[in-house]
Amino acid sequence: MPETYDSAKHDIGLKYSGTTYGLMLAQEEYEYNGVKNTRPVYQTLIDEYIAEQQATGQPGYEHLPVEKELSFVQSSYRSGFGQEFYDALDPERYNTSIGMDLRHKGMAILSNEETGLAVPSTTAPTAWCEFNDELYVAFGIYLRKLNGSGNGWTAVKTFTSPITDMKVFADGYMYIAVESTQIIEDCEDAWTSGADATASLDTGDYKVGSGSCKLVGAGVNLGAILAYENFSSTDFSSFTGISLWIKSSVTVAAADLVLALDDTNNCVSPVESISIPALTAGKWTKIYARMADPSNCSAIVSVGLEYNANVADTTIHLDDIRAESSYWYMDTGENFTQSDLSVAPHDSFAKYFQPVGATMWKHLSVHNLYSATDPSNIGGANWSGVTEVDTPNYDILKLLSNGTTLVIKKEDRTFYLDTSGNVQILIEEMKHLSADTTGTSGTYWQGKYYIPCGAQSLIEYDGGTISWRSPSKYSSSISTFNGKVQAVTGDEEYLFAIIDNSSSVEVLAGRSEVISGSTRWVWHPLQEFTLEGCSLAFVSSVYQKRLWVGSTSGSNNIFYIPLPAGYGDIVNDANIKVPTSGTHYFETPKLHYNFQGDLKTAIKITVELGHSWDTDIYFECWSKMGDGSYVDVGDLKGTSGTRIATLYFAANTTDRNLQLKFVGKTDASGTTPILLWYDLRAILYPTRRNLTACTVRAADNIKDKAGNTMSTTAAEIRTYLEAARDATYPVDFEDLWSTAKKVRVLALRGQPFSTIHKQAKGENIEEHFHLLLEEVRVA
Predict the structure, then answer these.
(1) In which element (H, E) is residue 698 found?
(2) Do 555 and 128 meet the contact criterion of CB atoms below 8 Å apart?
(3) Which Gene3D superfamilies match (predicted)?
């Protein structure tokens, strides 16, 4: 009967079919101090972690024996940011960067720093335009141009209403659109009823705020004031017209209704009567109309609605009544003319402009477009009839063009006008992002449209192909770049995206790159600075090529970042201006040398510097182990004799992942430190594979350790060992010291699995089984 394992009797134990059986090891002779003895054939080994390999091809650091030394070298970073863990299939990526520029092959340098210019009267920028070799920027009602020194603003004109857009047209004028913030009546309370109507506040049907003025007519008489609202005396004489939201329960012809303004209470003797354009029954309409004589409106104290013709008992809603200003245009001598076009009530008003060839397009709230071939007063031509872009539920945010087609960015989708003037959908895919699509930015760059939308997204439209270029897609676990894309613009080489980051903005540069033979889009962070949101961004070469970034808050400066005059010799470019203070750095990915599960220890970092030796121009090197904190390793400066610099890691730097941060330092704004490559050496501490090599006897009548004959037969022992050899899961094993383990049976190199040892007369053959057992941890 087979014997179960007993450490006092048996050398080792092996489990078979639920029972651990005792086994005896073969003995070998040895001599010690001249005395011959025997011992079990049993060894414990540490396996080689990586099989010895024969290197072929070009010699390189990748052929270093990894159990002796690891080397990680990176000399190009053009694949962009966002790589948290190193990927051998994308070796030119890095993790993140603030204030460093890694776009250029073979080097990491400091980015040009931002410079802030004060804004007039704490007013945020609202529009910009290059005209007649000047850079004009609108700050609300203030029009300014960049001064001759490029470091401040020269006053040009102050307007009545904030400027919303500026565009140069083919007629040689710069057109200036304005939109009023001057409320005449907000319609947030009930008006006083007239004799022929009942006025009330409707909080269920309105366009702005939380309510509208509702008028229900009953026995309406011609010329009757349906309702009115009195207020403190206000001067509207500097405005040229009005706008308001209005809805009628029945169709109304043009001039049937009149908005009355009066310098006496209760609107008893209006000084200005403004005809309301035609209305469609049941439809809220934003209307614009000119005043007949604004000079009469210097002390208005009441507003009312009058039925002037075709009286009817109808229900009318009014909301958000404003005084409006007509658009302007300016010639090269900075002479200004305000539009007085009036064939249609809307003719002299505009919120946005966009020239398309010889046609000027304009936008008026909410979804209306109009066109003209001569928008000046000179030709006296009126604007076209309205083109409505989809529904009025979503506002137009931006007009764009490639020179031949008008593209319209709305809050929900992007549209275009075909050659017949019909509205067509350009980008449907952004519709599900409409709740967060509020930015007025978008650009046409290098033959493609770039449309920011949603909470994080940026769409590229290329002739019917939609690509998502959202910077947040290109990184993981980096919240810095997960904000809204608030503005996009570009120069001849790069698209620039401005991303919201709470009280700061992140400036990124992106484009398609050919890397390792394949074309891909990449993003590189360039700079970060304090800004309470971005209202606009643009590139201008007036005075100096610059990327301009304007805030949504008048408490912030408007900033510019110098851009290279040319990209051929970036470090010697005439526009270089790098920061001499602050912390500007890039982080490597978490480096694991393709052994992510095993510990390694950094021992030294070696770099080559590309700038001339200067003790004040260098890189700080910081290291981080796993998810710990960065520790200062030292300064990489080199010497006047060599631009190779080396630092050693004195502290314990053992972890599964090693990460570096290089901080650029300079005392000269015209000279950047240059990092060409780095080489991080480490030692690998792999998980050990413990092996046991032993020889087991398989014979009849084997003596155990106590000298007693075992009942287990040679055939039974052979069965146990062959079953262990063929097992598909680690088997239970008791070692020579009675320690229980799980093992896997391996082939013993250079040895057969079993050999015939001897055969005694009348007994089974005695075999010796040569086992190599790999210890396997399963819990």
Answers:
(1) strand 690-698
(2) no
(3) Galactose-binding domain-like
pLDDT in tens, 336-350: 999 999 999 999 999
In contact, 377 and 348? CB cutoff 8 Å:
no
- Looking at residue 324, its amino acid is E
Spatial separation of the C-alpha atoms in residues 604 and 701, rounded to whole Å: 62
Give burial (CB, 10 Å; 0-12/13-18/19+) of 776.
middle
| Confidence bin at 437 (pLDDT 50/70/90) | confident
> CB-hemisphere CA count at 13 Å for 594?
11
- With contact defined as beta carbons under 8 Å apart, do 227 and 212 qualify? no
What is the distance between the alpha carbons of residues 179 and 166, in angstroms, rounded to a whole number?
Answer: 12
CA pseudo-torsion sign 331, 335, 336, 339: negative
Residue-wise pLDDT tens digits, 577-586: 999 999 999 9
Helix (H, G, I), strand (E, B) or coil at 35: strand
What would you report as the CA-atom Rg of the chain, rounded to the nearest whole angstrom?
A: 41
CA dist 473 and 275 (Å) reads 52
List the alpha helices (DSSP H) in 648-710.
Answer: none
Distance (Å, whole) CA 473 – CA 383? 44
Taking 3-state DSSP, the helix, strand and coil percentages for the chain, each rounded to the nearest 5, stand at: 5, 45, 50
Q: For residue 423, is the peptide bond before it cis, meaning its omega torsion is within 30 degrees of 0?
A: no
How far apart are alpha carbons 483 and 506 in whole angstroms? 9
Rounded to 5 degrees, what angle do the CA atoms 85, 480, 106 make?
55
Tell me the one-letter amino acid at 199. A
Give the DSSP letter string of 711-730: ---HHHHHHHHHHHHH-SS-
Phi/psi at 121 (5° precision): 50, 40
Single pTM value for the model:
0.88
Nearest one of 487, 490, 529 to 99, comparing CA atoms: 529
Domains in the chain, ordered, with CATH?
A: 12-47+693-775 (no CATH), 62-111+582-685 (2.60.120), 183-324 (2.60.120.260)
Measured distance CA(623)–CA(659) in Å, rounded: 6
Rounded CA-CA distance 245/764 in Å is: 108
Side-chain-side CA neighbours of residue 407 (13 Å): 20
Do 627 and 615 contact (CB within 8 A), yes or no? no
Q: In which residue are the tokens 């001064």 written?
A: 147
91/471 Cα distance (integer angstroms): 19
Other C-beta atoms lying within 10 Å of the C-beta of residue 181 = 10
| Chain-centre distance for alpha carbon 238 | 44
Mind giving me the DSSP string for 441-456? --EEETTEEEEEETTT
Q: Is 239 helix (H, G, I), strand (E, B) or coil?
A: coil
* CA–CA distance, 751 with 149 (Å, rounded to integer): 86
